[in-house]
Design a protein that fits this description.
Elements: E1 19-20, E2 24-27, E3 32-35, E4 37-41, E5 49-53, E6 58-64, E7 69-78, E8 85-91, E9 94-101, E10 115-125, E11 130-136, E12 145-152, E13 162-165, E14 170-173, E15 175-179, E16 187-191, E17 197-202, E18 207-216, E19 223-229, E20 232-239, E21 253-263, E22 268-274, E23 282-290, E24 306-311, E25 314-320, E26 326-330, E27 339-343, E28 352-360, E29 373-388, E30 391-394, E31 398-406, H1 418-421, E32 423-428, E33 437-442, E34 447-453, E35 459-461, E36 465-466, E37 476-479, E38 488-493, E39 499-505, E40 511-517, E41 524-530, E42 539-544, E43 550-554, E44 568-570, E45 575-576, E46 581-583, E47 592-595, E48 599-600, E49 609-614, E50 621-627, E51 633-638, E52 647-651, E53 668-672, E54 678-683, E55 702-704
Parallel strand pairs: 1-6
Antiparallel strand pairs: 2-12, 3-6, 4-5, 6-11, 7-10, 7-12, 8-9, 8-11, 13-23, 14-17, 15-16, 16-23, 17-22, 18-21, 18-23, 19-20, 19-22, 24-25, 24-55, 25-26, 27-28, 28-29, 29-30, 29-31, 32-33, 33-34, 34-35, 34-36, 37-38, 38-39, 39-40, 41-42, 42-43, 43-44, 45-48, 46-47, 47-49, 49-50, 51-52, 52-53, ...
Protein name: FG-GAP-like repeat-containing protein
Pfam families: FG-GAP_3
Keywords: Signal
């Protein structure tokens, strides 16, 4: 039996309707034909008919209707001697077996002598799983497929344990093979070029494993390592030992283990990371130790998003049990003030926090400044490392003084404030060097600011990037708008501009304006970076208020610049939208907008869950569906129940809250069936009793992975 992670055939999305029972036979001609098959009659076939190829590639399949369990699948077919056809058997789009029809004993025509069967044992199937057959005829053998038979099976045998030397991995970036007497097998991989190094191993057998990575954790730097399975984070660490050695020897040898990891043949295990200081990221080996799995059997281990929010003056993390159930626990970040950015800054797959704030040191004069003046301010930053399960360890805070030049133009009626001089908006790895930089807007200097992370040397304020921002607030978001791998910035510009401005990063953290969208002169809100039209680049969704009211899309042409027209969902001056979210909630490539709080008194529109998307020619936004039973503010989007589709979180509408008779404020989970049909699964947090903590930004729900997908030893 051979396995492959992906199919050799390129068929469009396949949605069969034929049912495949949990026990018994289904004739091939009863399957849903996707492409290239036709039914034909023959007295030698089961039921008197079979499927045969009519094209170079053929596909047919159905939906499994039996109970969840282990099964054996048998394919009946006719293996003639005048060709070598090829067949793949897939479950949910993944090849579980592939084989050639290479018999020489069956004869060149369909007879009883050409009958053959092929069995795939030990498949874990669940209701709704898609089973499909994909094949290619060859020569005079037209891929004649007779039946599928399902029978009770058993779990696969426990695979063999093995060690894979790092030097036997496929190097994909930055590594060199280096000889070392302390290494297993006498060689190791060493980061030698580029900003990151990576190498991968392709799995040859299915089963549950503990994965142990051997590496060298030296004392003269803090390298970082991440282990990916099929491109998704599995576990990782920072090489932060202070007790080993400054060289790669037995004293600095270390291991990290991810436990109970399900692997299938064809899966890829990738080790990636970067060196630091005198420690150049050295990897020695990978042990795959076969273990028994949990009682519920194998399958993809889905990471389900956790929550972070503030409630009644206390910060909480709610850890997801994988099915949309949350366990709330408080955590402590002693710095009460400042902006808290949740980012994985050490590469271990868990969200850490960067807390930052700015303090004005030089008063800013009001109007009529005769000349530009230099203003000093202090930036204070503290990193909190996530130790797992909501426990955080604090690094020493750092305070640094910087200077910004304020020109004669910015208008400060009563003297400028720190938020007008420096408005911290986001933090991430802007330039791809592996650390977290901070980006801010500055109305006072009419520019975009970057505080570049220099590691032990602290942050450096780079030369400002000119940006006409408008007054009364300039928040923003980070995202790659032109596909070059460097993070760009989308600014929500204030009054006078009143829209979104896209600023492109040249890779050195210098930004230039690519385009803007300003449909109103009274401000904008609800800016979201999302691929609205499914063309592979990020667009920007926004809501304009007052004159020009509506929901608009800045459609990206792939370079960060805006296409000529901005599709819109027009609203009246008196509308209320509240918080909305966007993402691909169904099986088509385009994104949908979720607006569960929208109401328009002037137009007589009542609130409810509205799903809105681009029309066919991308010229306007149109209503897809409406559910009056789901009303509120959408505060976060993600896969919260681990089923592979996007859900969202809901809180009561801000305009419904009455200080004299407040309604209960809770975060509720709205589950998606995968096709954009939603069900309210109920509250997932206790009641927020203090309404002071309920504003547009609060509950400040952050979603992400606060614990490990696999336990790490």
């Amino acid at each position: 039996m051979s396995y492959s992670a992906s199919s050799m055939f390129d068929f469009p999305n396949f949605s069969p309707t034929a049912g495949i029972p949990g026990a018994g036979r289904i004739e091939a001609e009863a399957l849903t034909i996707g492409a290239g098959f036709r039914a034909a009659s023959n007295p030698h076939a089961s039921g008197g008919r079979y499927l045969e190829a009519t094209a170079p590639a053929s596909q047919a399949g159905g939906l499994f209707t039996g109970a969840t369990g282990w099964y054996d699948l048998t394919l009946g077919y006719f293996d003639e001697s005048d060709g070598v056809s090829h067949m793949e058997i897939l479950v949910n789009g993944r090849v579980v077996d592939a084989f050639d029809w290479d018999s020489t004993a069956g004869g060149g025509i369909v007879t009883a002598a050409a009958r053959a069967e092929h069995t795939v044992a030990g498949l874990l199937l669940a209701p709704g799983d898609v089973l499909d057959l994909r094949g290619a005829a060859e020569g005079g053998e037209p891929l004649r497929t007779d039946y599928l038979e399902i029978s009770a099976g058993s779990a696969p045998h426990v695979p063999e344990s093995l060690r894979v030397e790092a030097e036997d991995f496929e190097i994909t970036a930055g590594f060199s093979v280096v000889r070392n007497g302390a290494a297993s097998g006498g060689f190791m991989l060493q980061h030698s070029q580029g900003s990151t190094a990576s190498a991968r191993h392709t799995v040859a057998q299915a089963g549950w494993f503990d994965l142990t990575v051997g590496y060298f954790d030296e004392t003269d730097g803090v390298s970082r390592m991440e282990v990916l399975i099929n491109g998704d984070h599995a576990f990782g660490t920072a090489f932060d030992s202070t007790q080993g050695s400054a060289i790669a020897n037995r004293a600095s040898a270390a291991t990290l283990t991810g436990t109970q990891v399900w692997l299938e043949a064809g899966d890829t295990i990738e080790i990636t990371g970067a060196g630091d200081g005198g420690e150049p990221f050295r990897v020695d080996y990978l042990d795959l130790v076969a273990v028994e799995g949990p009682d519920d059997g194998p399958g993809p281990v889905a990471r389900s998003l956790d929550l972070r929010y503030g409630r009644d003056g206390v910060a909480y993390i709610a850890l997801n049990d994988g099915a949309g159930g949350f366990t709330e626990q408080p955590y402590t970040l002693p710095d009460a003030r400042g902006y808290r950015y949740a980012r994985d800054y050490d590469g271990d797959g868990r969200l850490d926090f960067l807390v930052a704030w700015a303090t004005l040191l030089t008063p800013i004069e009001g109007n009529d400044r005769p000349a530009p003046v230099d203003i000093d301010f202090e930036l204070t930053t503290t990193f909190y490392h996530n130790d797992g399960g909501g426990l955080f360890s604090k690094e020493d805070p750092r305070s640094e003084v910087f200077t910004i030049t304020v020109g004669t133009y910015p208008y400060f009626e009563n003297g400028g404030t720190i938020s007008e001089l420096v408005q911290l908006i986001d933090a991430d790895d802007l330039d791809g060097d592996g650390d977290i930089d901070i980006v801010a807007t500055s109305y006072g200097s009419e520019s975009l600011l970057v505080f570049e992370n220099r590691g032990e040397q602290g942050f450096e304020l780079l030369p400002p990037s000119p940006a006409y921002l408008g007054y009364n607030g300039n928040p923003g978001q980070i995202g790659d708008m032109n596909g070059d791998g460097f993070l760009d910035v989308v600014i929500s510009a204030g009054n006078e501009v009143s829209g979104v401005v896209v600023m492109l990063n040249d890779g050195t953290n210098h930004f230039t304006r690519a385009g803007a969208l300003s449909p109103s002169d009274d401000g904008s809100t609800n800016e979201i970076i999302v691929d609205m039209d499914g063309d592979g680049d990020n667009d920007v969704l926004m809501q304009a208020v007052s004159d020009g009211a509506g929901v608009y899309v800045y459609l990206n042409d792939g370079t960060g610049r805006r296409m000529a027209e901005a599709p819109a969902y027009p609203l009246s001056y008196d509308n209320y939208v509240g918080r909305m979210v966007a993402g691909n909630f169904d099986s088509d490539p385009e994104a949908e907008i979720i607006m569960p709080g929208f109401v328009d008194a002037r137009e007589g529109i009542e609130p409810g869950l509205r799903v809105v998307s681009l029309n066919a020619d991308r010229s306007a936004l149109e209503l897809e569906s409406f559910d009056p039973g789901i009303v509120g503010e959408a505060v976060a989007v993600g896969d919260f129940d681990g089923d592979g589709d996007l859900d969202f979180l809901l809180v009561p509408r801000l305009e419904d809250l009455d200080p004299d008779d407040p309604i209960p404020v809770q975060v509720s989970l709205i589950l998606n069936d995968g096709e954009g049909n939603f069900t309210n699964a109920g509250p997932v947090t206790p009641v927020f009793e203090d309404e002071r903590y309920y504003t547009y930004s609060n509950p400040a729900v952050t979603v992400g992975y606060f614990d490990d997908p696999f336990p790490v030893a």
